[in-house]
């Protein structure tokens, strides 16, 4: 049993134990009903004793009252344990995905992680219901077996001795279902992830005319998911059919032995009725046991998938130190190598606005290490002389904010997106510097205008300006911007460049871009090619003195 499944069970064991005990009581009462009916026949009907009949009917009424109470409250407790366990797993998965050290998302699309946190967590939580039902079924089988012992020792022995091999065969039948259920969930999660990925990029796909390619990609993924689902369905059918055959054979043996005993006169009419009733009753716990076994198999498969996400190694390791009380914002890279960046050395003075021109792969690598989404393969990055690897990643991100080019907006108003944790003055200044105030003025309700998912009710340029305003409103000691104006017109871009320089005066700003307007607003520009710094200077000097730089930024 995986650690995930153990934690899910231990965390809610009180509710599950309460539900299991009540459910077991329900099954025991169910087993008592045919026995008591047989007693009524022998003690009251056959003897024509009206008083005995009333007493036994009253006893039956009490049994049914207990039966109803235990059924209702047993599965209420089991359902509570199931939902709380699933909720706990979702919180644990969310915490792992959002952990400052990252790593859980590696190799998985966002839609896959959502599927694990929803579908798999729910399946693992349902194990509590399966366990409650399974314990109740076992209690019913044992109670039925002992009741049959009272009727006839051979009948009781047939049931009690037949339960262990039946459970073993049920476990063996569940193994293929467990394997194929895990594969089914894996393929379904990947298909969901691909679908979410395609939908999020629908506008780009249409603009490129790549709809057919996207459809073919999803068709292949969907077919793989369908094939895995069909294999799991076949395993489910074999499991259910096999369990049905086993239970049928088991009941047939019980009925055959009971019939022979009745024919030979070894049991009374009432005992025969009780035996037949118990044989029919045994169908219910056996069916429940078959269902519970299938649920447990699927729960184990889902627990393995959750465990795989939780066990993913962090993207960055080490570092627990706190930031100094006062952050100057000096950044230094010493012989840093990561991805397309090789042996890069760079110094950004406190309060400097630095422009960085680099090819896309090198720019992406630089952003990842500056935001400590990953640690360099070689070299050291320092903040005010303190190596990144000695500082807590969450602490670094409060001092060094990396605003990605494709930063998403969230559902809510424009003001919610810009000023989640900013002061009113910072919001006003940031909106003006990013020309996002013009965006708000063009909306029906201004900054109170609600946005749709990922801000898709805005144009690309409007989204960029609101996202830039959000980064500026945070007022971080070090701000790293990546192509923040690629979707705005030249006039607006020049206004943003001026506003950016004014709003970030005295604070360190690194602009990774090829925009002449933004680079002209920088104190200094470095040109990175082949993984390292080729040249540096002001934008004007580099445009006139370096052909490669000029071709890159003026193309």
From TrEMBL:
Signal peptide: none annotated. Residues 437-460 are annotated as: Disordered. One of its GO terms (molecular function) is ATP binding. Pfam families: ABC_membrane, ABC_tran. Residues 22-298 form the ABC transmembrane type-1 domain. Residues 325-555 form the ABC transporter domain. Its main location: membrane. PROSITE patterns: ABC_TM1F (PS50929), ABC_TRANSPORTER_1 (PS00211), ABC_TRANSPORTER_2 (PS50893). InterPro entries: ABC1_TM_dom (IPR011527), ABC1_TM_sf (IPR036640), ABC_transporter-like_ATP-bd (IPR003439), ABC_transporter-like_CS (IPR017871), P-loop_NTPase (IPR027417), Type_1_exporter (IPR039421). The chain crosses the membrane at residues 21-41, 53-71, 129-149, 155-173, 241-263, 269-292. The keyword Hydrolase does not apply. Keywords: ATP-binding, Membrane, Nucleotide-binding, Transmembrane, Transmembrane helix. It is a multi-pass membrane protein. It is found in: Cell membrane. SUPFAM superfamilies: ABC transporter transmembrane region, P-loop containing nucleoside triphosphate hydrolases. The keyword Membrane applies. This is ABC transporter ATP-binding protein.
């Amino acid at each position: 049993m995986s650690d995930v499944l153990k934690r899910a069970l231990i965390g809610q064991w009180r509710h599950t134990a309460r539900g299991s005990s009540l459910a077991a009581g329900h099954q025991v009462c169910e087993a008592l009903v045919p026995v008591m009916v047989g007693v009524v026949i022998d003690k009251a009907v056959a003897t024509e004793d009206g008083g005995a009949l009333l007493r036994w009917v009253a006893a039956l009424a009490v049994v049914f009252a207990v039966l109803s109470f235990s059924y209702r409250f047993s599965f209420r407790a089991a359902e509570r344990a199931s939902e709380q366990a699933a909720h706990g797993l979702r919180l644990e998965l969310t915490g792992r995905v959002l952990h400052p050290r990252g790593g859980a998302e590696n190799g998985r699309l966002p839609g896959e992680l959502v599927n694990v946190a929803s579908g798999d967590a729910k399946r693992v939580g349902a194990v509590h219901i399966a366990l409650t039902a399974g314990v109740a079924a076992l209690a019913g089988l044992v109670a039925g077996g002992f009741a049959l012992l009272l009727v006839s020792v051979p009948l009781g022995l047939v049931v009690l001795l037949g339960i262990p091999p039946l459970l073993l065969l049920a476990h063996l039948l569940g193994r293929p279902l467990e394997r194929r259920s895990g594969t089914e969930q894996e393929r379904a999660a990947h298909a969901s992830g691909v679908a979410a990925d395609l939908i999020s990029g629908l506008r780009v796909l249409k603009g490129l005319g790549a709809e057919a390619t996207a459809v073919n990609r999803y068709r292949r993924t969907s077919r793989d998911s369908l094939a895995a689902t069909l294999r799991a369905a076949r395993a489910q059918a074999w499991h259910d059919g096999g369990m049905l055959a086993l239970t049928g054979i088991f009941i047939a043996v019980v009925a055959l032995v009971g019939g022979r005993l009745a024919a030979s006169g070894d049991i009374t009419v009432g005992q025969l009725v009780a035996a037949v009733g118990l044989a029919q009753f045994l169908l219910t716990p056996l069916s429940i046991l078959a269902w519970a076994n299938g649920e447990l198999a699927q729960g184990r498969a889902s627990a393995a998938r959750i465990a795989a996400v939780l066990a993913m190694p962090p993207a960055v390791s080490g570092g627990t130190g706190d930031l100094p009380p006062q952050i100057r914002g000096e950044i230094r890279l010493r012989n840093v190598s990561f991805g397309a960046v090789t042996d890069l050395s760079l110094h950004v003075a406190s309060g400097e606005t630095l422009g960085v021109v680099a090819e896309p792969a090198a720019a992406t690598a630089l952003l990842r290490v500056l935001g400590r989404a990953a640690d360099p393969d070689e070299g050291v990055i320092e903040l005010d002389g303190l190596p990144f690897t000695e500082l807590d990643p969450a602490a670094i991100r409060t001092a060094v904010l990396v605003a990605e080019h494709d930063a998403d907006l969230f559902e809510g108003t424009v003001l919610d997106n810009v000023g989640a944790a900013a002061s009113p003055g910072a919001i006003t200044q940031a909106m003006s510097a990013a020309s996002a105030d013009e965006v708000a003025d063009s909306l029906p309700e201004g900054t109170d205008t609600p946005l749709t998912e990922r801000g898709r009710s805005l144009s690309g340029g409007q989204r960029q300006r609101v996202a830039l305003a959000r980064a500026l409103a945070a007022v971080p000691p070090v701000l790293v911007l990546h192509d923040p104006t690629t979707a705005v017109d030249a006039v607006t871009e020049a206004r943003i460049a001026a506003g950016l320089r004014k709003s970030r005066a005295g604070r360190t700003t690194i602009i990774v871009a090829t925009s002449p307007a933004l680079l002209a607003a920088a104190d200094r520009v470095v040109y990175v090619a082949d993984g390292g710094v080729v040249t540096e200077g002001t934008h004007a000097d580099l445009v006139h003195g370096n052909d490669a730089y000029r071709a890159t930024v003026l193309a």
